[in-house]
Every structure is written in C-alpha cells, then in structure tokens.
Amino acid sequence: MLYGKEHVQRYQETDGAEGHDWNNTTVLLLTTKGRKSGRPYTTPLIYQRHGDAYVIVASKGGDPDHPEWYKNLVANPDVDVQVKDQRFKARARTAPPEEKPELWRLMTATWPDYDNYQRQTDREIPVVVLERID
Known about the structure:
8-stranded antiparallel beta sheet, 8 strands, Pnp Oxidase, Chain A, alpha+beta
C-alpha cells in the first residue's frame, strides 16, 4: 500500500494512475508553501468533490495538533493541487460552521474513521475547501 513520500512519488510519476484510488477512496496531492521555510511540501490527502470544489479534512488521525499542511495553508491559502493528471492552483479555506456539517457528512461517507478521529481529540478537526483559481 502506498503511503507518504512513496505515495506522492508514484502519484506524480504515473499522473495518478497509481495512488489516486486508495483504500476504496480517492486521493489528491496538495502542495503548500512552508510557513517558516517557504519550501513546497506535497501531501497525499483523501478528497471528495463538492460542486466545483475539492474537500479535504485536516484530521491527522485525531492528533491533538493540526497537521503541518493545514498550518501552512492557513498562513498561505494559495496552494497547488494534483488530481490524477490535472494540476492546478487553488485557494484553500476552512469551512465555516454553517457549511461544515454537510461537508463533514460527505467526507465521513468516504472515510468513516474521520468520526473516530474527532472523538479522539479535543480539537475541532477542520474541513478544508479547495477552490480552483486557474
């Protein structure tokens, strides 16, 4: 099973032929700019489409702290996204309270463990909306 850097590499090398379909769900590659280093960081993340947008979850497996990629996009919401062989720029935003329940249901339908992750932590797990800008 693909994971971490190997997942990113195989996804990029095969335009998502390997790595997009993963554990009965779908994965995109999110590239953020490091908020301290300014360097690009690419992370494979489960996603679902919602209209023209892409939805991801900053779960970090229920860890008490937000994932680094989420902290990076809060600092700089302009990100790069790869879905299969499509690469594009997007603007990331955290779903507000009135939007989050619908998006949470969408994401738990594809990855039910998100509910378990939320139960494991006191932090509210953010749902992120990626809106294409190019």
